[in-house]
Amino acid sequence: MKSDLFSSDHMVQPAVAPGMTVQNAKSIKYAVQGEMFARQGAMVAYRGNLQFERMGQGVGGMLKRAVTGEGLPLMTVRGQGEAWFAHEAQNCFIVGIEPGDVFTVNGRNILCFDATLSYEIKTVKGAGISGGGLFNSVFTGHGSLGLICEGNPLVIPVSQQQPVFVDTDAVVGWTAHLSTSLHRSQSFGSMIRGGSGEAVQLKLEGEGHVVVRPSEATPQKPQQH
Questions:
Q1: Within a 13 Å sphere around the CA of 92, how many CA atoms are in the beta-carbon half?
Q2: How many whole angstroms separate alpha carbon 204 and alpha carbon 125?
Q3: What is the structure's pLDDT at 122?
Q4: pLDDT tens-digit series, residues 159-188
Q5: Which distant-in-sequence residues (6+ apart) come within 8 Å of 193 by Cβ?
Q6: Taking all residues of the chain, what is their mean pLDDT, rounded to a whole number?
Q7: Which residues does residue 149 pair with via DSSP β-bridges, in sequence order?
Q8: How far is Cα 72 from Cα 108, in angstroms, rounded to an integer?
Q9: Residue 19 pLDDT > 90, yes or no?
Q10: How confident is the model at residue 222 (pLDDT cuts 50, 70, 90)?
């Protein structure tokens, strides 16, 4: 059979080292030798001797999703083999975290991560945010974190002289040494409509970077039963 489909641009190659690599713009390949973690339902293919196990719905098995307070269920992948992860054809990126690094990320943007990373749930509390607060997962340790983003992310430098305000529905994550608070302002939309509604942004101050997706919100999909 002859087709561009079978060209080297699309053909997967055997892994040369354990861990994750970007397979293409929309997927991450993970060469598993032991254990790793991923969001439930994100595995699209695998080969080798791998076992997939849902994690419990307690704190350790749930990454909080910003704004809604919903949880992101995780699964454990164990064994030896290769697995490919993707989610709704979103763009994929890998962040390497080293000792001393702190990366705060929205649960909805997490695809997979090394078992050597540690995370804890933290929240920026404030009235007006449904679910009671803005939930995020704070990653530390040494390893790789696979992220997804609708479109190409914006990485905006933050400095003491120039704080950055981001839409709470658009923020993906931010680096260490940034302080956060909720900032209220009249929304541009309400001003056009002549209303008096308020918008809530996340204000980041300090020295570092904030990652933002080029989309304020994801349309709700109908539940499948």
A1: 24
A2: 14
A3: 78
A4: 999 999 998 888 999 999 998 888 877 655
A5: none
A6: 81
A7: 91
A8: 7
A9: yes
A10: very low
Whole-angstrom distance, CA of residue 175 vs CA of residue 162: 16
Model pTM? 0.80
Burial category of 7 from C-beta neighbours within 10 Å (exposed 0-12, middle 13-18, buried 19 and up)? exposed
C-alpha distances (whole Å) from 154 to each of 56, 86, 139, 212, 222 are 33, 20, 20, 5, 29
- Residue-level pLDDT at 199: 72
Question: What integer pLDDT is reported at residue 225 of this predicted model?
Answer: 40
| Residue 38 · residue 27 · CB < 8 Å | no
- CA angle centred on 74, ends 56 and 138, rounded to 5°: 105
d(CA 186, CA 91): 32
**pLDDT for res 57:** 53
Instruction: State residue 196 phi and psi, 5-degree precision.
Output: -130, 25
Closest CA to 144 of 42, 15, 36: 36
Q: Mind giving me the DSSP string for 91-153?
A: EEEEEEE-TT--EEE-GGGEEEEETTEEEEEEEE--TTSGGGSEEEEEEEESEEEEEEESSSP
Count CB atoms within 10 A of the CB of residue 161. Answer: 5
Q: Which of 113, 117, 91 is nearest to 39 (CA)?
A: 113
pLDDT at 59 over 70: no
Quote the CA–CA distance of 169 and 107 in Å, as a whole number.
12
